[in-house]
Design goal:
The chain is mostly helical. The chain has 22 helices and 4 strands. It has a single domain, classed as Ribonucleotide Reductase, subunit A (Orthogonal Bundle). A hairpin with a 2-residue loop joins strand 3 and strand 4. Helix 9 packs antiparallel against helix 10. It is globular and about 80 Å long.
Length: 507
């Protein structure tokens, strides 16, 4: 009879990482790990790190393999049974385009960042956690591509997502966010991705988005969403552990971390304008408004989080009050801009139906009827007369978030918000006080920003004409862009649905 004692999780984890935390002898530790000190963060005892994953390698592989087995079985079934015909409306597919174009390769960027962290930290615990999250992130990118690949067979805008991500103007918003994080130090990267994005803001991507996918019949997206969400739960735990660990190591860390929290909250909030548009305008069957989601997932959940963190000396992010003021107009201002630039995008746009405008008026009674509805109705009338409005000039981009300066003043929705900073004799334009603060804290970083509209005007984007720029960006003009009403997607969808209806009548 064996008397071998079964090892607990702590013992398994200790054995898994044994020998990885040695003190170097050929070179001093600060040269082997040069990045972990230059930000000013002081770490006195890496052993105080609490592993947020609580997984050994063998358990991790088994766990992920089982999830992948179920995921790909459902994706295969979705494809074999023409699951795309069960979605609510072909307009919905444009929300999937925006997600694939903007988020999937951002997941890959996060993978690169965590791989870098796995090398740069002196502590064993964060090295292993970074390695596991790096694997999670690249898996998410792969599963999203597989889950959505079926749509590429039937709809426009999916065929060239990598080139679009690198070159298309509105996709510089997520791309610049993750490249900003990748070029930061390791502790700032963790604050940006693991805390601000994963813990504070990720629910605003996955919960409304996946609920919207389910409500609109998109089971392929729902499946990869749920497969990723279990990983996100661990990532959120890591984000909170990072903040608490740094705060407990030294009080001098607190003001540095708070500055990062302020920065990355605002950068993440600006990035989420893509989600705001999706929720209020791109879902034919709507789950909740952006305003309701922001109140639930940030004001309430985020408020409780920062109440808890106040014992460490942290406060709510700067300009959180501005995000609350803007929640009733955020999506409307962004959708109006995307609609007007629909000729230069990799997806289709449209004017909401009368029923959808009623829903918007109900959800935003203090803003939509007064400021936005009449403009949309005017554009709709122009379209019916064959005068569909497209902007023919390029917009002024924010030097930091790279979003066109289409937002209004926090206290006046009738005035565009614009800030200007002079640095070394050059003038730089910002969309908000939040982005201005970020620029002024690190001007040498942001003066190097590659702004798509500037590059177009300088002739660096394929040529001087719109067709040249669209081709360079990976867009099949006349197929991927312009209004949904005249698109091949709509024509094909109506033909498919008519055939399905005939088939049902015959049966």
């Amino acid at each position: 009879m064996s008397t071998t004692k079964k090892l607990g999780l702590r013992e398994k984890y200790r054995l898994m990482t044994r020998g990885l935390g040695w003190e170097t002898t050929y070179q001093p530790m600060d040269k082997v790990f040069p990045y972990q000190s230059f930000e000013g963060i002081k770490i006195h005892d890496w052993d105080k790190w609490e592993d947020p994953f609580r997984l050994t390698m063998d358990a991790y592989w088994k766990y992920q393999a089982e999830k992948d087995r179920k995921l790909y079985a459902i994706i295969d079934a979705f494809s074999q049974h023409n699951g795309h015909l069960n979605i609510s409306d072909a307009r919905y597919v444009n929300a999937i385009k925006l997600f694939l174009q903007g988020i999937t390769l951002s997941e890959y960027s996060a993978h690169r960042g965590f791989i870098h962290l796995g090398r740069q930290f002196g502590g064993v615990g964060p090295r292993v956690a970074a390695q596991m999250q790096a694997i999670d992130e690249i898996r998410h990118a792969q599963t999203q591509i597989h889950a959505i690949s079926h749509y590429n067979k039937h709809f426009s805008g999916f065929h060239n997502f990598q080139q679009m991500y690198d070159r298309l103007w509105y996709l510089s918003v997520p791309k610049s966010y993750f490249e900003d994080a990748l070029t930061a130090g390791p502790f700032e990267f963790l604050t940006a991705i693991s805390f601000s994005f994963e813990y504070v803001l990720t629910n605003l991507i996955f919960m409304p988005f996946m609920s919207g996918a389910a409500y609109n019949g998109d089971m392929a997206t729902v499946t990869f969403g749920f497969s990723a969400q279990s990983d996100e739960a661990r990532h959120m735990t890591m984000g909170l552990e990072v903040i608490k660990f740094m705060a407990e190591q030294d009080p001098d860390n607190i003001p540095i971390i708070q500055r990062w929290i302020d920065k990355w909250f605002w950068r993440g909030y600006r990035l989420l304008v893509l989600v705001a548009m999706m929720m209020d305008y791109m879902l034919p069957k709507k789950v909740m408004s952006w305003s309701e989601a922001w109140e639930m997932y940030f004001e309430q959940a985020g408020g409780a989080l920062f109440d808890d963190l106040s014992r460490y000396g942290f406060r709510m992010p700067k300009y959180a009050d501005v995000s609350i003021k803007e929640k009733d107009r955020y999506s409307h201002e962004a959708w109006a801009a995307l609609y007007s630039y629909g000729a230069a995008s990799g997806l289709h746009t449209w004017i909401p139906t009368g029923e959808e405008m009623e829903w918007l008026a109900e959800k935003y009674p203090a803003s939509f009827p007064q400021f936005y509805q009449k403009r949309l109705q005017h554009w709709d009338e122009q379209h019916q007369q064959g005068k569909r409005f497209y902007s023919t000039t390029l917009p002024q981009l924010c030097q930091v978030c790279q979003i066109p300066a289409w937002f209004t003043e926090p206290d006046d929705p009738t005035q565009l918000c614009h800030r200007e900073v002079e640095y070394k004799g050059e003038h730089y334009h910002l969309c908000s006080d939040g982005c201005r603060d970020i620029f002024q804290a690190e001007p040498e970083k942001y003066v190097q920003a590659w702004l798509p509209t500037h590059q177009v005007y300088q002739g660096n984007c394929g040529g001087a004409s719109l067709d040249d720029v669209l081709k360079w960006s990976g867009i099949d003009s006349g197929h991927d862009n312009f209004d949904y009403a005249e698109s091949d997607d709509r024509k094909n969808w109506e033909e498919w649905k008519s055939q399905t209806s005939v088939g049902k009548k015959v049966a």
